[in-house]
Amino acid sequence: MIVVGAGLGGLALANGLRRAGIDVAVHESDPSPRIRRQGYRLHLSETGIGALAEVMAAGRRAAFLATAHTPRARFVRLDPGLQVLEVLEAGGRHLSVDRQTLRDALLADVAETVTYGRRLTGYEAAAGGVTARFADGSTATGDLLVGADGVNSAVRRQYLPHARVIGTGLIQLYGKIPAALAADLDNVFTAITGPAHRVVGVAPTRGYATCSFSAPAGDLPPGLGEMTQERLRAVVGKMTYGWHPRVHDMIDDWREIFPLALRTSVPIPPWPTSRVTLLGDAAHAMSPAGGAGANLALRDAAALTAALAHGGPLIPALRSYEQEMIEAGSAAVRASAANGARVLGQAPLPAR
Predict the structure, then answer these.
(1) What is the pLDDT of residues 29-45, one digit of tens each?
(2) Are 130 and 179 in a shared domain?
(3) Does the pLDDT at position 200 exceed 80?
């Protein structure tokens, strides 16, 4: 099996396939597993926790879970004066984990299957297999090609050229603050929502808390990616003028900040099953407002492992996986978009 992308979903799939005795090779475009900033803390729900139990070796999973933080299972919305506007009890088990720690845990048992510096340029599918072509001139041939290569998926671009990923109209600045500044905000997520769809988000994990600021793209100055950390803090400080002093304490101690343009896929109808398939953000990228993206990628990996490990004919197994993946992924995209519109001011999804 050929997996394109060594993010969380691709590595989870590699773990599951190896445990099932299925040969797998993972090809990642980045030159190393630590080259790209994608974020710091992740929220794992019971969906993601359960998926890890299906794909990871028990000892490795237990060691990883020992690094997790358990927040109160609720989502809280505050006004700029830190008065409570809304409390949504989440129910079930929720963990706050470090993204790199999870990626390292998923990589540990499959490191020898991953080749870095392999950027996919295209593929050819035939009745008996699939051949992937890479920018360095190399090729790989297997029974199945899985696009686990994220929101900018090269696999999806060739396989489903009509599938769209669009902007939400929002930019998010994402970074870390000391855990002590969020000690009494120990929820799955706390959103401090101000006028003009300006939102400060806080989420503690072990050793630090993430702090984000989102706003409509047109309200933020150009060139955020070239600004110094001091300048980014100044921009957000000005845009939150008059908010509670504790918010400004967070901004003053905000570190490792980088900008992200928030995007979402647009759900499409099921497609004919073939020897090429997708998982995670390659199939259903979504707004972070639902906290579901990583959980769905892990769930996809576990579900695809189970379908392939069954031992039956390939195409019917993939069709079963895709039906469930498309249905769950599309529902999560729509739910995240609706929540993003309500809390963050995200532009609504187009009808098609």
Answers:
(1) 999 887 666 679 999 99
(2) no
(3) yes
Domain limits for position 179? 168-263
| Residues 272 and 306 grouped into a single domain | yes
CA 8 to chain centre: 8
Question: Is 134 a domain residue?
Answer: yes
Question: Does residue 127 sit in the same domain as residue 275?
Answer: yes
Q: Please list, residue by residue across 182-215, b when 16 or more beta carbons sit within 10 angstroms of its beta carbon and e when fewer do.
A: beebbbbbbbbbbeebbbbbbbbbbebbbbbbbb
Same domain, 258 and 328: no
Q: Is the pTM of this model over 0.85?
A: yes
